[in-house]
């Protein structure tokens, strides 16, 4: 699809934000195959101009879709749709939805019901119908954009089964009034060892429990790295360089010191290209693995993270103590 063929719409009268409208339309187009892997999207300026909105809104949407593993953003090359398992899952989800939506719209129009009004009211119906929603723990996960935040989010959801919302430290200045708004919809704040002190400082003043969790690497991967020849050049790549440094740090902690480690972020264009070209082996976090494997299949391996057992136990204990409203019984989680 050429970038000038992309036609989206925004309706300021809808109860959904413009950000959500654009994001969901793009996911729909990708999920139904109208936008294919490898297709380049319009620049933020182009799409913003065509919709009559601020370019920062489009940048935010593109960044969110990148963080979900659906887009790649490269300076000088633009924004492209990824390929891989996440796109495949989106396709498998959206295709049956598309068939059902077409039938529903046809039936609504046959009955003289405005489809937009129907689907907006349908959201209210779903929220009211979901009687179990009030018992789900509402979790706020705080991390930075540099680390593999999708991994932590998946693990929190797996262990606790709650509704997890991710917020990035870069978006939370110390004087932000947004923190109080976030906490009004949150039962528990979870962060990682990487940012425990920062998060506690930001949220501690609100008398809200902050759970700190950590991760490590699978032992099998450490054994493979230990078997590499002395002096081997090994790249550790995550969403940002800080994430790559964390990965390399776990290898050093295991006593592996005979390799030459380089920490790189996905956002470091030329440095990343050099690493892919010159390293003997590259270990990629789950958040960047699909992209790097497609670019250098012969040398890229997955860096298999896992939640620390103590962290998993901590989350399980808090979930077990939570009452029907998602808060610990008798403040047992404080």
UniProtKB/TrEMBL annotation:
<dbReference type="Pfam" id="PF00392">
    <property type="entry name" value="GntR"/>
</dbReference>
<dbReference type="InterPro" id="IPR036390">
    <property type="entry name" value="WH_DNA-bd_sf"/>
</dbReference>
<dbReference type="GO" id="GO:0003677">
    <property type="term" value="F:DNA binding"/>
</dbReference>
<feature type="domain" description="HTH gntR-type">
    <location>
        <begin position="16"/>
        <end position="84"/>
    </location>
</feature>
<keyword id="KW-0804">Transcription</keyword>
<dbReference type="GO" id="GO:0003700">
    <property type="term" value="F:DNA-binding transcription factor activity"/>
</dbReference>
<dbReference type="InterPro" id="IPR000524">
    <property type="entry name" value="Tscrpt_reg_HTH_GntR"/>
</dbReference>
<protein>
    <submittedName>
        <fullName>GntR family transcriptional regulator</fullName>
    </submittedName>
</protein>
<dbReference type="InterPro" id="IPR036388">
    <property type="entry name" value="WH-like_DNA-bd_sf"/>
</dbReference>
<keyword id="KW-0805">Transcription regulation</keyword>
<keyword id="KW-0238">DNA-binding</keyword>
